[in-house]
Amino acid sequence: MNQSIASLGPILLEAKKIRQRVQELGNQITQDFIGKSPHLIGILKGASIFHADLVRAIELELSFDFIAVGSYGGRTRSSGEVRILKDLDESIKQRNVILVEDIVDTGLTLHYLLQNLSARDPSSLRTVTLLNKPSRRKIEVPVEYVGFDIPDEFVVGYGLDYAQKYRNLTDIRILRK
Ligand code: IMP
Ligand code: MG
Predict the structure, then answer these.
(1) Catalytic amino acids?
(2) How much is the pTM?
(3) Which of 71, 144, 147, 160 is most solvent-facing, going by the fewest CB within 10 Å?
């Protein structure tokens, strides 16, 4: 086993459990958006895998787009300064937007994005996050759909990275440094 894999800690969420929960979130969104055609915006790169699975768990006509944001500073700790690295391709004016995030930690990224997107005049704006670390919150943000509340651990896999690695793991694991 190579050294980078060996630095991974235990599994927090197995692929099967993630799959079941994503299906439940998809069912819930399907119920809540009947007749509405939601527009699902994935936040690159972390949410890309969750987004790809979630849109297929929603049984509605829908559309999607992506946005990429970055924060200045540390790798595992958000500095709070957010910037858009890749903006949306399409206007969200009068659309029913669902922002798709991998993890809400301090809440700073989501806070910035919700402010930025709501200024573009969508009909509605909700957020779904696969993971939530409530104990780390620095700013209160509304999150309508949460996959799992998790403890204050740095996790990787299923799209989440450490230094751009481990996004392809099917389970979500704790990183031990
Ligand atoms: P926030 O602005 O502090 O809420 O940070 C959110 C972003 O930080 C997420 O979209 C992730 O990219 C990253 N992040 C926070 N916690 C973790 C983690 O445990 N593993 C991987 N990335 C994380
Ligand atoms: Mg992210």
Answers:
(1) 105
(2) 0.93
(3) 144
Whether residue 102 has its Cβ less than 6 Å from ligand 1: yes
User: Are the CB atoms for 29 and 38 separated by under 8 Å?
Assistant: yes
Taking only the tens place, the pLDDT of each residue in 99-122 is 999 999 999 999 999 999 999 999
How do residues 68-81 score in pLDDT, each as one tens digit? 998 765 444 556 67
Cα–Cα distance for residue pair 111/142, rounded to 1 Å: 9
Q: Are strands 8-13 and 172-175 parallel, antiparallel or unpaired?
A: antiparallel
Q: Does the beta carbon of 132 sit less than 6 angstroms from any atom of ligand 1?
A: no
Q: What is the pLDDT of residues 147-174, one digit of tens each?
A: 999 999 999 999 999 999 999 999 999 9
**Ligand 1 near 105 CB (within 6 A):** yes
Ligand 1 atom closest to the Cα of residue 153 is: 19
Mutation probe of ligand 1 site: the residue of 12, 100, 103 with most atoms within 8 A of C-beta: 103
